[in-house]
Structure to design on (469 residues):
């Protein structure tokens, strides 16, 4: 059509192209320094500058396992699990398996005295396959299928967190047909806007999870479960979001939820004995993040519940939480091999160096999905070169294939170097894909100088096995 021009609309990944970096990112005094807030407890540099984790040099791990590879510090994972269990005495601490789950890790969770949260039939199968006590499993999901509910009920899951009236009906029908009895909690939506990205804020009104307290749906669900001949109603559940540092959102959620509990008691004469506050506790991905310790969280949350219970004149319920990222996130790192190094001149005389590695959005989708920030270091050696502003990117055919948006790395970085990214224990392998027919990396545990494969690397044979000719 005459006079029509084709316009390319630049997305948000291009919006900061002229900016030298975010305000929080400052030129490091020592580009080789490892910020202990970002890494698992056994991470260090050897005398020659090679990063070591769990007594294993990343160069040796890369040589033995290839790259990309996720390295998971078993000692650190167990220490963080114990820290939550010890900081919350009398509470039930459910490890949120959606952050990362495999059968051997299920054993770690059980051995450290935590319960386990799953949110799909696949996660339930892994939990049971890893030897989890079914009575210590909680089953989540906003659209559980009949098959998933049947598997949970048949296994004797300790609790099913119901999320819709349709689901309640499915559970009642299954129990009636098979003689099962369901132990349930009702997920309520307290209408809280958590201070996090919109895609991981889960307690505001306009989203798919839970029953709204404000419009009365939550009370309807509680009453129906309470009077059902096939269910034991344990209590209420809410979850306000993920990667949260500010506990004020939990305070508002607790107030609204405990008011609902009081109203339920007034209406039925029964007490709701349990209250799960969910998880979502943040971790440090960059030097700008300041997460709370488990002990600090315990003090804050216990104070909130005690205050609200007194205010409503009710007994404090049995409490539970669901940390996932806060346990496994810092325990993991991703290791990549540098393939190309490309300096790019920006407007204003600044420059950014694009460092391309052998992974990308297929093994960590979070930066592309909601602009999640990460850090990175040169891992196979120390460097005396000046730090330069870099962007670590993947090998996929997408301009948004960014792993670390802004980071200072040594100016002498070259192809063949290794890059280590902290905070990769959570939501990296779990959200990984075969985009561009990439092969998903392995997860390898490190402890006391030994490597143990938890999830092996995919092969081309795996990829082609699903492709029917």
């Amino acid at each position: 059509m005459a006079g029509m021009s084709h316009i390319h609309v630049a997305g948000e990944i291009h919006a900061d192209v002229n900016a030298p970096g975010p305000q929080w990112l400052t030129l490091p005094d020592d580009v080789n320094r490892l910020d202990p807030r970002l890494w698992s407890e056994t991470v260090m540099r050897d005398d020659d500058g090679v990063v070591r984790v769990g007594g294993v040099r990343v160069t040796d791990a890369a040589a033995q396992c290839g790259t990309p590879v996720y390295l998971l510090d078993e000692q650190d994972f167990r220490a963080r699990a114990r820290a939550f269990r010890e900081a919350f005495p009398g509470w039930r601490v459910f490890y949120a398996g959606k952050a990362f789950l495999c059968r051997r890790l299920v054993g770690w969770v059980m051995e450290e005295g935590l319960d386990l949260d799953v949110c799909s039939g696949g996660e339930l199968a892994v939990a049971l396959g890893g030897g989890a006590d079914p009575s210590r499993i909680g089953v989540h999901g906003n659209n559980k299928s009949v098959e998933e509910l049947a598997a949970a009920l048949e296994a004797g899951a300790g609790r099913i967190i119901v999320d819709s009236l349709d689901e309640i009906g499915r559970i009642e029908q299954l129990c009636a047909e098979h003689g099962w009895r369901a132990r349930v909690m009702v997920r309520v939506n307290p209408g809280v806007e958590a201070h996090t990205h919109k895609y991981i804020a889960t307690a505001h009104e306009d989203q798919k999870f839970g029953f709204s307290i404000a419009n009365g749906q939550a009370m309807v669900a509680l009453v129906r479960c309470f009077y059902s001949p096939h269910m034991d109603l344990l209590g209420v559940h809410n979850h306000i979001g993920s990667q949260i540092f500010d506990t004020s959102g939990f305070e508002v959620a607790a107030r609204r939820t405990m008011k609902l509990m009081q109203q339920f008691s007034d209406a039925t004469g029964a007490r709701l004995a349990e209250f799960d506050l969910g998880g979502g506790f943040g971790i440090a991905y960059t030097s700008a993040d300041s997460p709370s310790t488990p002990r600090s969280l315990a003090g804050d949350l216990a104070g909130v519940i005690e205050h609200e219970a007194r205010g409503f004149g009710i007994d404090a319920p049995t409490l539970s939480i669901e940390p996932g990222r806060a346990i496994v996130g810092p325990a993991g790192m991703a290791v990549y091999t540098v393939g190309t190094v490309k300096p790019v001149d920006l407007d204003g005389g600044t420059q950014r160096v694009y460092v391309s590695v052998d992974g990308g959005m297929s093994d960590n989708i979070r930066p592309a999905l909601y602009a999640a920030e990460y850090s990175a270091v040169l891992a196979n050696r120390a460097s005396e070169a000046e730090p330069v502003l870099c962007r670590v990117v993947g090998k996929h055919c997408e301009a948004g294939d960014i792993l670390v948006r802004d980071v200072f790395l040594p100016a002498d970085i070259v192809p063949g170097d290794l890059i280590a990214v902290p905070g990769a224990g959570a939501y990296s392998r779990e959200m990984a894909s075969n985009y561009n027919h990439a092969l998903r990396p392995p997860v390898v545990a490190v402890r006391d100088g030994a490597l143990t494969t938890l999830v092996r690397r995919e092969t081309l044979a795996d990829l082609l096995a699903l492709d029917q000719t």
Q: What stands out?
A: Residues 1-18, 195-203 have pLDDT under 50 and may be disordered. The chain has two domains: 12-68+332-424+441-460, 74-328.
